[in-house]
Amino acid sequence: MCNKNDLQGRTIVFTSQPKSDEPFKLVERLGGDVACFPLIQVIEFHSQDEVFIGRLSLYEWLIFTSQNAVEMFRKKLNRLGMSVSELSFKVAAVGTKTASALEAIGLQVSFIPTIYSADTFIKEFSSHLKDTDRCLFLKGSLAKDTIRNGLEHVDEWTVYETTPNVKNAVELAKYLKSNPRVCITFASPSAVHNFSNHVYSQVLLTTVRFAAIGHITAKSLIDHGLPVHIQAKSYTYLALIDEIAKWKDVESK
Q1: What ranges make up the beta strands (E) of the chain?
Q2: What is the DSSP string of 107-153?
């Protein structure tokens, strides 16, 4: 269990904007400081809406792998005056946070994989499907084609675009030049990619510590030539901060 001063004198840099301020509050309760430079922007994508809104009744399952997709789906339904109570499909979610976001808008989650990865999802989810079931995967513009290639009878609806926030990347580079002893957190490969393109070459990073939520983001750091000092065992910011605090204790001994 983490103690009040476990992050004393440390700054935790967030490269994505958490959905709530709880991660910031936890850092501060543990004695640390917070800096936030979101390196990606999520923008609602509209061009496929007319196609899929009119076909929702054709699908037995909707698949969500991110809270962003849930939020964009909610916005689309609200804009059209539709209620989730009118919809009869079942819902699959990758991750407890995604599941909680779905339940918050009134959708009951019927399936969550034991490990939050696309490959595990496909393996475990397939046993829940009938041969005739059709699935609709609501995704972001940068989502890989793993789910589409791994399942039969699945269509993809792009509901949001992920774009780099270059301005924040430039600001983060300036910040790191003046504050080199920080721990930078990453919650997505997209944030890692923007960091690598616009920050990595601008600063000396030997004193920076890198923390990743999940093995996919950790792999992205490694693929970009960056170390992974800390990795969360579960896919939440709170779990990651807990690991950062524990890692500091080990480092200081």
Answers
A1: 11-14, 33-36, 40-44, 61-64, 90-93, 109-111, 135-140, 154-164, 182-186, 209-213, 230-232
A2: PPEEE--SS-SHHHHHHHHGGG--TT--EEEEEETT--SHHHHHSSS
What is the pLDDT at residue 253?
Answer: 41
Beta bridge partners of 158: 139
Quick one: which of 105, 115, 114 has its CA closest to 138? 105
Residue 97: the pLDDT is 85
In terms of C-beta distances under 8 Å and separation of at least 24 residues, what long-range contacts does 85-92 make, across chains too? 87/56, 87/57, 88/57, 89/56, 89/59, 89/60, 89/61, 89/62, 89/136, 90/60, 90/61, 90/62, 91/61, 91/62, 91/63, 91/64, 92/61, 92/62, 92/63, 92/64, 92/121, 92/125, 92/128, 92/135
Sheet containing 11-14: order of strands:
33-36, 11-14, 182-186, 209-213, 230-232
pLDDT of residue 1: 58
Residue type present at position 86: E
Give the pLDDT means over successive 10-residue stretches in the chain (253 positions).
79 94 95 96 94 93 95 94 88 91 95 87 94 95 90 95 94 93 93 93 88 91 95 88 79 44
